[in-house]
Amino acid sequence: MRHPELALPLVSSSGKQDVKLYNSILNSLPYKEALTYFADLKQKGVKFTSVTYNTMLMNSDNPEYWLQSMTEAKVPMTSVTASICLRHFVSRQNFSKAAVIMRQMQRNGLKPSPVEVNKAKVAVQRSRNKQGNTDGSKDLGAWLEKNLSD
Q1: In this structure, are 84 and 149 located in the same domain?
Q2: Stated pTM of the model
Q3: 17 pairs with which residues across the strands?
Q4: Per-residue pLDDT tens for 64-81?
């Protein structure tokens, strides 16, 4: 690891893992270094929270990997998770995938933030105006209208 100062003890003086500290460090690192640090911590038995996974998810180009990792680790997804996923797929105009992820989140009783929903609605409308619904915006748009109307 390039940052020897990150070689922190796995437990605090009270004998507990300091996951908040690890989350802060992960958030401050470039993604590739965060991956290495995450793997090191995981190998040493650190139990991560949804905040940890959301931090990794936010900086990843592969949210499906982190969603699967959360599921395997039995870490519950949150509304923040839903918001990050919606932002990720909408920003890449992958509206079909956004709709799939939102359906999965809905089954778990989760909703993205109103800000992300509004951004998604605007992106869907712009896409519909430009592309004639060939990019999956119809699917996401219909889901948004049905499930997240104002």
Answers
A1: yes
A2: 0.73
A3: 11
A4: 899 899 999 999 988 898
